[in-house]
Amino acid sequence: MALSRRTAWVAAGLGARLLMIAFLAAAVQLTLANQTRRRYADDFYKLQSYSYTVATAVIGMAGAALQVPVAVYLLCRSKRMAPSALAPIAAYLLCRGGGRTGAPPSAAALDASMYADMAATAALASGVGAGFGATSDARHMADDLVRWKRGGGGARGDLDAYYARGAVALVFLLAGMILSACASVVSARVRARAGGDNGHILGN
Q1: Which residue intervals of the chain are DSSP H helices?
Q2: 76 with 86: CB under 8 angstroms?
Q3: pTM: predicted TM-score of the whole model, two decimal places
Q4: How many CA atoms are closer than 13 Å to the CA of 87, on its beta-carbon side?
Q5: How far apart are the first and last CA of the chain?
Q6: Contact 6, 201 (CB under 8 A)
Q7: What single-letter DSSP state applies at residue 84?
Q8: Rounded to an integer, what distance in angstroms lies between the CA atom of residue 149 and that of residue 143?
Q9: 142, 108, 131: which is closest to 24 by C-alpha?
């Protein structure tokens, strides 16, 4: 049977969070691999902003991972399945309204989900801005102050490679931030529909 429009929104939010976790995990892995490459005794060329982007990615992954069981519970409830079969009991209790069997998810739980998505998006956006801004500034400084030939090997080649690898990781972080923004839109829509239907979020 085709999914209802409301269930489709919840499924879209779940898919966005799962993809977000994958992209952010890739960003963390690439950034840490780039940071641990050590060619010189002095790490003056390494950007602290990359460490900040790792922190924001970890925050984003943690927030998304905590909400995945809630989304699974909502999908189970929309299909009249036992939520405990797929979602942790803690998420089940969080989403139950007032502890009554068959009750809709509580407004507080939906509010928490919506605000958590917004906070994760803001953190990731700051990480993306810090990472790309620092990379751009560092490359301009290398162009203006360091007189080595681009791509000619040596220290200048190492710098170019380091910042290029950092930029690739930031692209994954940017994709995660966009997916987080999509999840925020879904959370806001689900919450608005719940309020409009007196708390019944996934009725068919």
Answers
A1: 5-36, 48-78, 89-95, 107-145, 154-196
A2: yes
A3: 0.75
A4: 25
A5: 12
A6: yes
A7: G
A8: 10
A9: 131
Q: Which class for 162: exposed (0-12), middle (13-18), buried (19 or more C-beta within 10 A)?
A: buried
Euclidean distance between CA atoms 107 and 199, whole angstroms? 7
Which is nearest to 9 in space by CA: 192, 189, 195, 204?
189
Nearest to 76 by CA among 7, 152, 4, 148: 7
Contacts of 25 (CB under 8 A, 6+ apart): 57, 61
Contact 87, 72 (CB under 8 A): yes
Interval 2-60: pLDDT, tens: 456 767 777 888 889 999 999 999 999 999 988 887 666 667 777 889 999 999 999 99
